[in-house]
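ok here's the first one, seq then C-alpha cells
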Amino acid sequence: SSCCSIYPLQKVFCFTFFPSSPAPLQRFVSDVKRLLTSVPWVAYEHINYTGWFLVFEEGEHSFVGKEMNDKISSLRLITDDLHNPQITLYEHINYEGKSMVIRQATDLTRGSSNDIVSSHKVQRGAWLLCEHGDGSGFRYIAREHENLPNYKAINFNDKLSFLRPLRPGKA
C-alpha cells in the first residue's frame, strides 16, 4: 500500500496494487488525470518542495523523464487564479530601476532585457522563470503575492532569460 498527499491538501492518494486486479491502479490513474485537467501541479525532487522540479499542466503525462524517474518526493498543486497573469520585472534589487510588465510567455534573449532582472512582483497568476531562453537551466516558480525583492537570495541575479505563465486547466 502506498500513499501520496498533495499540498495544499486537497486529495490524498492511497492505493494498493494487486497483480490479479488492475482496479486500484485504474482508479489512481483516473484521479491523477482528473487533477491534471483542473490545476497545474509541480513535482519536486526533494521533500518540502525543494530541488529540481517538473511542472505538469493539463494533458497526458506518461513519462517524467530520466532526470526525475523514481526521484519525486513532494507534489504541490498550484491553486492560484491563473487567468489574466501579470508579473512586473525590475532591473535592480528591491524593485528599483527599469521595470517591465509581462502578461504572456516572453523570451528575453530577443531584446535588451536578457540577464538584467534582479527582482519581481507577481500581480496575478503563477510564473515559470528560466535561466535560458529555451526554458532550461535554473528554474523558479513565482506565485501571486510571493514577491522576490532580491534574486541574489536564490542565486538568480541577472540570469533570467525566459518566463511564462502557468496555464489554467479547462475543468
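and now the second one, same deal
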Amino acid sequence: MTTSPHSEQDRLARGLAALREGRYFDAHEEWEKVWQRASGAERRCLQGLIQLAAAGVHLRKGRTGPAARLLDLAIAKLQDTPEDFLGIPAGALLTRARTLRSGLAAGTIPAESVSLFSPPLPRRTA
C-alpha cells in the first residue's frame, strides 16, 4: 500500500466498527479507500470484505438475489484470507457469510431482519 499505515489502519478499524454496528455502507466506503491502493492478495481480500458489506446493504433492503450473488463473490475472495487480516476477523466473517448464504439458499433467513454479525464478532485482544 502506498499511503501511511496509520491512515490505512484507521480506515480498516473504522470499517470494522461500522460493520459491527450494522452500518454496512459506511464499512464499504472505508474499506474501498484502502482497496483502491492495495495490490495482490491484500487487494483481493479487501474486495471480499467490501462485497460482504455490500451484501449487508442489499439484505437490509430485502434484495436477496443481489445479496446472494455478492455473498458468493465475497466467499470466493475470502476463502484464502488469513484468520486475522489486518486486524479484521476475516475467518469469522467468512464463516458468517457461508452460514448466511446457506440460509438464504434454504429460505430460512428473513433478509429484512438479518444482522450479518450477530452474535457480535470477536474483538481483538492483542
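notes on #2: The chain is about 65% helix and 0% strand. The chain has a mean pLDDT of 85.
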